[in-house]
Amino acid sequence: MNIKVLYFARIKESVNYSTEDIALPIDVDTVVALKEFLVKRGEVWADLFSGKQVVRVAINYELVDDIMALNEGDEVAFFPPVTGG
Predict the structure, then answer these.
(1) Which of 5, 14, 20, 81 is 20 to 30 A from 40, alpha carbon to alpha carbon?
(2) Rounded mean pLDDT of 53-59?
(3) Do residues 10 and 29 lie in contact, with contact meaning Cβ atoms separated by under 8 Å?
(4) In this predicted model, what pLDDT tens digit does every residue of 57-85 receive, in sequence order?
(5) What's the CATH architecture for 2-79?
(6) Is 11 exposed, middle or buried, given 0-12, 13-18 or 19+ CB atoms closer than 10 A?
(7) Percent of the chain at pLDDT above 90?
(8) How far apart, in whole angstroms, are the C-alpha atoms of residue 48 and residue 5?
């Protein structure tokens, strides 16, 4: 399955790029599985996606939780929680 992943704010700064196309293994079919897949890339990725930090996710511009299924061609965005005042 092929997806596009977008990184925003501190996540983008940590990984040093804002977007990438990823061909996922067949067993990576949910957001939580995608996070586990990214954690295997190394320490920076583990710090971001292992649950130590709060990371929000949207699929195709809709906020979702970690159990949401991924589909071919999805656009997945990762970003820190947004606060305002």
Answers:
(1) 81
(2) 94
(3) no
(4) 999 999 999 999 999 999 999 999 876 55
(5) Roll (3.10)
(6) buried
(7) 89
(8) 14
